[in-house]
Amino acid sequence: MALIVQKFGGTSVGSIDRIRNVARRCLATAAQGHQVVVIVSAMSGETNRLLKLAHEVTTLPEAREMDVIASTGEQVSAALTALAIQQEGGKARSLLGHQVKILTDGAFTKARIKTIEGSKIFSTLRKGMIAVVAGFQGVDEDGDITTLGRGGSDTTGVAVAAAIGADACEIFTDVDGVYTTDPSICSSARKIPKISYEEMLELASLGAKVLQIRSVEIAMKYNVPIHVRSSFSDAEGTWVTKEDKSLEDVVVTGVAYDKNEARVAITGVEDKPGIVAELFGAIAEKNISVDMIIQSPAASGDNRTDVAFTVLKTDLARAKPFIEEVSRTLGARAVRYDEDIVKVSIVGLGMRSHAGVAAKMFRILAQEGINISAISTSEIKISCLVADKYTELAVRALHQEFGLSEKR
Amino acid sequence: MALIVQKFGGTSVGSIDRIRNVARRCLATAAQGHQVVVIVSAMSGETNRLLKLAHEVTTLPEAREMDVIASTGEQVSAALTALAIQQEGGKARSLLGHQVKILTDGAFTKARIKTIEGSKIFSTLRKGMIAVVAGFQGVDEDGDITTLGRGGSDTTGVAVAAAIGADACEIFTDVDGVYTTDPSICSSARKIPKISYEEMLELASLGAKVLQIRSVEIAMKYNVPIHVRSSFSDAEGTWVTKEDKSLEDVVVTGVAYDKNEARVAITGVEDKPGIVAELFGAIAEKNISVDMIIQSPAASGDNRTDVAFTVLKTDLARAKPFIEEVSRTLGARAVRYDEDIVKVSIVGLGMRSHAGVAAKMFRILAQEGINISAISTSEIKISCLVADKYTELAVRALHQEFGLSEKR
Question: Which domains does chain B carry?
Fold first, then answer.
């Protein structure tokens, strides 16, 4: 007998029929002799409907009250799921964030879980019931309702699994697993049967479509095996687990791309110690995240340098006036912005023990005539910034040349 | 400075515009220097929408889960009201049943309040905020969400007012007060400026349209003055308070009618001690409420009697087979049912000190040629059962002859 957490997203509980389907799946798992804890999101569209109501009242709704409103979506779907399980002949009980109790900090709309008490879940299971926990919500030390941010139900699922020492956390979604790359631009993309937490984190842009990245961090910290799989089939999906020897045999596990960043280039900055620190210190103060940073020694002998970096496109409008002000202070010659870029990355634990992976990546892109405008590397990931018109070409070439198209 | 509880029903918070209106009203009260606690129902139609969802999942949804679902209606409207107050420049905070904490018994869907902690409300008021409490909901000793039954937000309003020692509980509704009779059948009906708790309870069928009867019982027990008034005007409504001398000057305060009862007549029951007790004991066991009871000595000398009583029409179908079984056991000759009846009542504290009120009522009805098929009396109420085709005639005649049509 195992203790299994099963998390179902908004699409999986998007209608009464689908909720019935969820109930049957939970009962099938229970019928195999397992103890089952279910985590549900709000019915698809419901959270948006609720937030729209709040925005009709006021353009800038207070975060505390937003959470009171938004959390009702999961409250309703948890109770409906419990009713559906009862209707199918099972025993079930819904549990809310403040009942479980999922204690968070007080950062409304983006709270972080501090502790989870397991006792209410265990007492429900001991009565032979399936515990249906409302995802996305928690409660702070004042007893105020908090929510964990978009995709927060994944986090609830993994955190609950960690807290009660579950054997696995199954994440049911509308895709059937994590793929070697985006199947919509590369038809030879294949489902990855097993991937490490570290790789999953680095594949964020691929993985975020199926799994909230924060939940992977929690799973890694508490060593909770995650099984990402389809709500609509019984096929095995992708296991996300701690690394083992078998995973290192594969050099590259996946090819990801990210079109959400814009490139900022500041030219002719005076090349003296502390200038770069001043620039990025000031940017960080404005809460603008910077990803890739490249500083190139200027060709001319005038002791000036060029600095380029990427920021999220959604931050760019807010960042522009500020970047220009700092640039003037630093005596820069010009600031240029480029939004027509994509970051293409290869990820794999095997890179650590295989030399020449970066060189191979650059060669593959060069063979396709793709110019690289920035490079960044980590232990298990290499990213190149290229013109976004090359997205498909770059992804397909890397996917093919690193052997991901072959059946393993 | 007074401490005022203001309760707004579903129609009063039925749209974003109306919620804004509620917010302005609360702020106007606060601007007069009062401390304000607001109780809100769910937006009109929302509770039905939620219960329908549950009934789509299963025909007989478990009461516990129903309450988890239904309580979200008030949760959303409380937070929207708090946001609207903030939008209008005020400070406000929503509080849910489990936060306040409104402790109830565990009778899901029809829970009764046991205690209310005032501390969370007081700490909110101390911060200079308006406390917006979700009506209708509570929490039982296990931390499970309960609801108080239809109209439960009135009960929340009065019970919270009692718990925090409020100076008054204002019930805002879509009518502007309690009337001497139903204005839709008697055009000379007038708004009653002041009425006692006892009279309000006896006028249930009139009053239930504007005020949940259970809330009047609580108000009477804790001596909370209730002010029933319109959400859509500033006019004074009806004050429901403890009786005082001025109220006794009026013999009859109101004329009520109730079409919800059916008459059951059992003829030829053996007239010996204990038979009637057996009959009504057995009916009570089935949880069927009996209102008026008339036992008439049979005219013939065969030692048999006729027993008549009224039950709710909604209980009749369920009660019929059972009534017939008991009648057979008692050796009754026949059972007859009459659903075409109405109970017409006059209510007034003044009756206690004025003789001949009942006789006057019978005479008024007789003058109109209306036959009375049953009579019941209490200290401040006289009710007559008549054919329902006479409803308007009887109500108008009583209203006129007892002087209610005149301007006091």
Answer: 3-174 (3.40.1160.10), 245-408 (3.30.2130.10)
